[in-house]
Amino acid sequence: MKDILVDFWNYLRQHKKWWLVPLIIIIFLVGFLLAISGSSALAPFIYSLF
Predict the structure, then answer these.
(1) For the chain, domain boundaries
(2) What one-character DSSP code corresponds to residue 23?
(3) Distances from the Cα of 5 to the Cα of 19, 40, 47, angstroms
(4) For residue 40, is it left (φ>0), alpha (ψ between -120 and 50) or beta?
(5) What's the confidence (pLDDT) of residue 2?
(6) How far, in Å, CA of 19 to CA of 34, rounded?
(7) What number of other Cβ atoms are within 10 A of residue 33's Cβ?
(8) Contact 46, 37 (CB under 8 A)
(9) Euclidean distance between the first and final Cα of the chain, in Å?
(10) 9: number of Cβ within 10 Å
């Protein structure tokens, strides 16, 4: 996992693709919310966000 992050960071620096950073953060946050919503007592509160 560490190698993938290092490679991704180097790619961003070399190719000046800084606009990808917010997209990746949003994708991880949505994935995290979906993972939590399926297996916790917080699910009703998370569903009300959408």
Answers:
(1) 6-33
(2) H
(3) 16, 28, 30
(4) beta
(5) 86
(6) 24
(7) 15
(8) yes
(9) 30
(10) 11
- pTM, whole model, 2 decimals? 0.61
CA 36 to the chain's CA centroid: 13
Question: What single-letter amino acid sits at 37?
Answer: S
The residues, any chain, with a CB within 8 Å of residue 36's CB and separated by 6 or more, are 42, 43, 46
What amino acid occupies position 18?
A: W
Contact 8, 21 (CB under 8 A): no
Contacts of 26-32 spanning 24+ positions with Cβ under 8 A: none
Rounded Cα distance between 19 and 21, Å, is 6
Give 10-42 pLDDT, tens digit per residue.
998 999 888 989 999 999 998 888 887 776 676
